[in-house]
Design goal:
The protein has 130 residues and is an all-alpha fold. Helix content is 72%, strand content 0%. The protein is flat.
């Protein structure tokens, strides 16, 4: 079945996506990984290091995460094409770079959801809020 099709999903696919998440997101993630493999070794290693960090602090929603990784791949592909050194891309402090990069994807950040979950749990047990 193609993306954007007006045909209803089969029951099997509906069940599968409930368990595993949208198949289209998985396809896009595999395409992102293939793009990263095509980068020169040092750029690929930099992207993989950033990706590791983003796995912990980035969006928890697969669609948001996939969009973020696509943007990361775009940035590094453009840097390779223009001959921009990695240090010029990430600056002297890679953590500052990745934190600034993450600011573009605030809605689905996993850590924000966990902070909200913690606050709600404490509010419930202390009776402060319903």
């Amino acid at each position: 079945m193609e993306t954007g099709s007006n045909e209803p999903k089969s029951r099997y696919r509906q069940y599968l996506e409930v368990v595993t998440g949208p198949l289209e997101d998985k396809k896009r993630y595999r395409q992102y990984k293939a793009r990263v493999r095509q980068l020169p070794e040092d750029y690929r290693a930099a992207v993989e290091a950033l990706e590791r960090y983003l796995m912990y602090f980035g969006p928890g929603d697969s669609a948001d995460a996939t969009a973020m990784y696509d943007d990361l791949a775009d940035l590094f592909e453009q840097s390779v094409a223009s001959g921009t050194p990695i240090r010029e891309v990430v600056g002297e402090n890679p953590v500052e770079f990745v934190e600034a990069f993450l600011q573009n994807y605030p809605g689905g950040q996993w850590i924000n959801r966990e902070r909200e979950r913690l606050t709600k749990a404490i509010d419930r047990v202390t009776g402060d809020k319903p």
